[in-house]
Design brief:
The protein is mainly α and about 190 residues long. The chain has five helices and no strands. It is rod-shaped and about 165 Å long.
């Protein structure tokens, strides 16, 4: 029986040694897993740091792009304002040139009317028995008087005349164009004289 106990004890010691070896093996695996986890953790932290740096660079780049877009937008707005101003200047010049051409036409008409008046006066003198014909100086004097009667008309005056011709009341015109009623009446009165 001693051998039986001895074999059981040997078997027990062997089981204890095997379980100790398994415990050590399990601890070694746990330590290896822990070191692997630490390595992966370090690698992951490195990746996260790189990702944060990339995000920071992307934010800086996006800020740069936004500022560039804003500056370009401001430039485009300024260019548009400049273009609108130039278009307005060109339009006013065109309107002024049209007004000058119209005034030249009106001046020519007035000069023609002055010549007709001078001839009529000469004819009256001749018909009345006055033997003295009108001289060139007198004709020039009549022509200069006719030229002095020409009143330059700017675009607002033209608007007043156009609105009056279309049947709008003087008070309405004054309100629409933000002008005085007296000024409107004066413009319309001068238009009737011419």
């Amino acid at each position: 029986m001693n051998s039986f106990y001895l074999s059981i004890m040997t078997l027990g010691i062997l089981l204890v040694l095997i379980s100790l070896a398994l415990v050590f093996y399990d601890r070694k695996r746990a330590i290896d897993h822990a070191s692997l986890i630490d390595e992966k953790k370090v690698a992951l932290e490195g990746l996260m740091k790189e990702a944060e740096e990339m995000i920071e660079e992307l934010n800086k780049f996006s800020d740069y792009i936004v500022t560039q877009i804003d500056s370009k937008n401001d430039e485009v707005c300024k260019m548009m304002e400049t273009l609108e101003n130039r278009i307005q200047q060109v339009n006013t010049k065109i309107n002024e040139e049209k007004g000058v051409k119209k005034l030249k036409g009106e001046k020519n008409t007035v000069i023609g009317n002055a010549n007709i008046l001078a001839r009529a006066e000469e004819t009256k003198r001749t018909a009345a028995g006055n033997p003295l014909p009108a001289t060139q100086a007198e004709n020039l004097r009549i022509q200069t008087k006719a030229r002095d009667k020409v009143i330059p008309i700017n675009s607002r005056y033209k608007e007043v005349i156009q609105l009056a011709e279309s049947g709008v009341d003087e008070t309405e015109i004054a309100k629409m164009l933000n002008m005085g009623k007296g000024e409107i009446e004066l413009i319309l009165g001068m238009n009737k004289i011419i």
